[in-house]
Amino acid sequence: MAGRFCVTLRHAADDPDAATMAFVTASAGPASGKETLVFLTTEGVRLAVKGAAAAIREPGLPPLAEVLENYLAAGGKVLACGTCVKKRGLAAEALDPRMPVAGAASLVAFLSEGAASVTF
User: Fold this and answer.
1) What is the CATH number of the domain that holds 29?
2) Structural domain containing residue 37
3) Domain count of the fold of the chain
4) Is the pTM of this model over 0.85?
5) Could you say which DSSP state residue 107 is in?
């Protein structure tokens, strides 16, 4: 379990504080040498839309787009819940290819191989 970390994120523009802090927290994973996954679910999948993070800014915190880009550049992974993407009618061509759509089975597989996990 020591080598993996998972953050599940349920929010985007509906809670900029939680969305930003989820990626701030997740960023500690790659910085600590841990394989890190952010799983976007419910409203969080809206962050998988190209450029969506740029519109989210919580006063007193770094810009979400900056934190997200740094997380990805450090090797962090992001998956977007396929059921949630479909429910919200998000078009595949609108999604950032660095945040692929995946089913819940991908989250279960990551967690079942041993991972600490937090949810925002």
Assistant:
1) 3.40.1260.10
2) 4-119
3) 1
4) yes
5) H
